[in-house]
Each structure stands twice: as structure tokens, then as C-alpha cells.
């Protein structure tokens, strides 16, 4: 917003709402008269010229810092109540314009048991008054059990065609329920069966998240902070951003969608241990994290992954994904061009060929085998090893514990995930990895870490007799060594899939570029001025 002389211009893109107010006689507000006008050439601005008494307040957003948004009231006087009413109506009507993509009807799910169990109060005290100010009609649902929200969505009990968005007040787990419910409903509605290698369909409506959980990774990564008011304001302004979604298969059967982390080994063990300590609240993760760290378990496994075809884009390339990110915009455009045709990519058949032709890694720290030219998609690689952790993230996974996130240069909507493999290492080495991850420090010179930007991957634990040869350097393994290896390979971990445990270790994962839209705009580049932030961000305004 700027004020100049007797005129005030407000950027309607950043208006939260407008209300009538009684303005005290000595207030320092501006007033305006009949010759105030909507400037047709500046579609987002209304110019107001001051005269007269009575008034109304326009609530706009401010950026006090650290990516947090707050509200500020700008009050105007009118010379009579009719003019005041006209202005309120004109501003409300302008905000309803399709160009702004602001939601009018929302379904809000609140998980009363999220995080520190304050979700209901947070919603009533901080969110609802802002939704009311913005004239958003809300259907409120307090969840009564796990999968309540998901079931309501899959069964289409909410008439999704008549609403603009779903909001979950909770943590990543609650979002995951809503995401899975919405995508499954969308597929079923089009009679698409969710099976091995099916193409999921993008829903029409957006999802918003009000952070009230323990980790709040998705909110933090898409807004730059985990703050209730900030997230509410992103929803009200109608922000939108497409984020990548994974489809996860277990034993070749589709099981669920994920958007943040898939972690085997350390992150899986941590989650499994923490699941029956929910009573501890968010601190359960620190407790179980320390336990898993001390256990220093490592697991044998085979990972096959398909590298991104963009060799310039890499987990260590230092290109941050900010609001209006060029890499995500380009990926989004080519994705929307390709959605009309069925995409054919290398699949299980090629995996078999790969098994026959590949020169497997014998040691966990050695380089991956290059299978270039052996079949149509030469970007497949295979790694065999003993891993403390295998993590795949589809977004950076910034959160309070690690503001830079598990993979700081990962993109929200580039159609790729970052695969981070931590080979067997000492506790000191793993601590180094954890600390560097928490602080966002360089990890590429740690020789027990491999990082790749991939489109899909599969993992299988090495537990079969036939696997022993591939993990031993000896041609004829002595009986004593065989027994030892058998004991070691029979130990498996579980997968941490967006905070839910998947018990079966054999999985395959594919990423679907910008499959779902959130009410967010990505992290605003802190080096930009406020007006630059306003202009670079939201795709909805580019199209308007
Ligand atoms: N009424 C309820 N009772 C018990 N569990 C519920 C209820 N409503 C939702 N849930 C489940 O609680 C799980 C965890 O909730 P949520 O993600 O909101 O909080 P959290 O685990 O504290 O945070 P985070 O996921 O960020 O670590 C979700 O997977 C959801 O399925
Ligand atoms: C010195 C020790 C510092 C440890 C820092 C390690 C680096 C952590 C990177 C952050 C990764 C977050 C991944 C997000 C996972 C969420 O989908 C999931 C559900 O909310 N949370 C957890 O699994 C809970 C995750 C708990 C992480 C410890
Ligand atoms: Ca991505």
C-alpha cells in the first residue's frame, strides 16, 4: 500500500477484508468522497480521495519479517453512511472477482489431538475471525478418529464440487489424510482404479493447512514459517502453488500418496519408536531420534532410481526454490502440455533387464553402475549397499528442527525428488550428517552420502539367499560368513511415509509433477522488497 498526498492506493491482491467502523473524531485516517474511483488501468488498485466523516476499515497484510504475515487496518472516513456502504460493497465485489481466485466456500477439518492439542482453540481464536472478515463460508468438522477426514472425502459426503477448498488444522499427518482422500475421490469419480503405475488425476480444488501439528513440514516449506495467522492469510488471498506428489507402491500394489519424506532406516526406526509415545507430543521425535541414533542400525538394500533428465538440476546445485521459481514454472508448463497424452516411462520390465545387465555395486560406498545405452531409458541406476538411512524428499522439508530442511535445494513443483542415501558409517559420522542437515551445511564432501535428483525409485531389502552373493566380494562364501550375513540381512527397517509407518520394506515410488494445489505461494525470497514479492509470486495473478 502507498499513501500520497490526499490519495490512498490499496493493492487489492493484499486486502484481507473490509468492515464498517466508527472513526473517532481525532483519528489519523484518510477520508474520501464521490469522485473517488476504481482505476481501470491498474486492476488491483482502488484510489480513494479524502473528504467527510463516518468510515470503514480495509484490513491488509503486512510483512513484519521471517516470512510471517500479519494484518493491519487502514481506516477511511466518508461523508455519509450511504457512501460508506457503497465503498464497502464495491471493495467486496472487487475481491470476489475470478481474477483473484479467492475461496468463498471451504470445508475445514480440525484434528483436536494434533501436536500440543491446541488445534480447536487456535482455529476459534485466530483463524475463524479472519475467515469471517473475508466473507468465507465454512463447513467445520472436528475429526473424531484417525481416517475420519479421509473417509468423508472418499465417500463424497461433502459435495466437493460445490466448494473451493479443503483446509486442515493439524500436522503433516492430517494433511496426508486429506490429500489421500481427495486424490482417491478424484480418481474414483473418473472411474480410475488406483493400481500399479496408474496416472493419478489432479483435483480441481486446493488444500490449505493451518499448522497445529508436531513437525508442520509442509506449511514451513511452502510459506517459510509455521505460523497460524500467516497460513490463514495465504488461504484468504487465494494463493495457489502446485506441489509434487508421490504415488507409493508396496509389493507392486498402490498404497498411498506422499509429499514430504519417505525414509527407511533412521527416519523409519525413529517414527516407529515414536508412534506409541504420542502422549509426549512433539518432543517424542527428539526422544526417539536420539534412541535411533544410539542404535546406529544399518540395513542391506538394493535401490534402483531413475535420474532426472535435467542434468543441470541437482540436490547440491545451490538453486533455492522461491516463490515464482523458474524451474517449477517450467516443469509445470511442460507438465500441463503432456497431461493430455499417456506418459510411457521405463517400468518394471526394464528393471528386470537392468538386473540381468547391471554390474552391481559390491560395496556401499562405491559409485553407482552406469547402464547408459543398455535400454531405452538410460537414466536408471542401481545401488546395492548397507544403509543407515535412505531418504527421499519431494520438497526441501524445512521445519523448526531444521529450517533449511533435509534437502535445502529441493523444489516444490519440479516433478523430481531428492534421494539421499547414507551408507553404513560410525555414530560420529552420522551425527555430522544430522548436524549438517539441521543447519543446512554442505554435505557433499561426506564420502558416505550419495545424493541424486530422481523421478522414481524402488527399494528392496536384501534378505534372500540369492542376495548374499551380491553383497559379498567372495565367489564362494564360507559357511561361517554366510551365517553372519544371513543374520545381518534378516534385519529390516520400516518406511516413514509423511509420518505414517509403512511396515513392508519393498516399495516403489514415482513422482507426479504438481499434482495438487495448495493455498500457498512458496517461500518469498528474503532479498526482495515487499512490492517485488507481491509481483513475482502467484501464478493466479499471472493469468489474470
Ligand atoms: N480425532 C482423532 N483422534 C485420533 N487421531 C486422529 C484424529 N483425527 C486425526 N487423527 C490422526 O492423527 C494423526 C496425527 O495428526 P497430525 O498430523 O495432525 O498431528 P501430529 O502427528 O502431531 O503432527 P505432524 O504430523 O506434523 O508430526 C493423523 O495421521 C490423523 O490421521
Ligand atoms: C542433532 C539432531 C538434529 C536432527 C535434525 C535432523 C534433520 C531433520 C530434517 C527434517 C526432516 C523432516 C521430515 C518430515 C517428516 C514429516 O513428514 C513427518 C510427519 O510430520 N515427521 C517426522 O517423521 C518426524 C521427523 C523428526 C525429525 C527429527
Ligand atoms: Ca520436487
From TrEMBL:
GO molecular function: ceramide kinase activity
Superkingdom, taxonomy of origin: Eukaryota
InterPro entries given in the database record: ATP-NAD_kinase_N (IPR017438), CERK_C (IPR045363), CERK_PH (IPR057465), Diacylglycerol_kinase_cat_dom (IPR001206), Lipid_Phosphate_FormReg (IPR050187), NAD/diacylglycerol_kinase_sf (IPR016064)
Pfam families the record matches: CERK_C, DAGK_cat, PH_CERK
Annotated signal sequence range: none
Residue span(s) of domain DAGKc: 101-252
Entry GO CC: membrane
GO terms classed as biological process: ceramide metabolic process
Protein name (record): DAGKc domain-containing protein
Lineage: Eukaryota, Metazoa, Spiralia, Lophotrochozoa, Mollusca
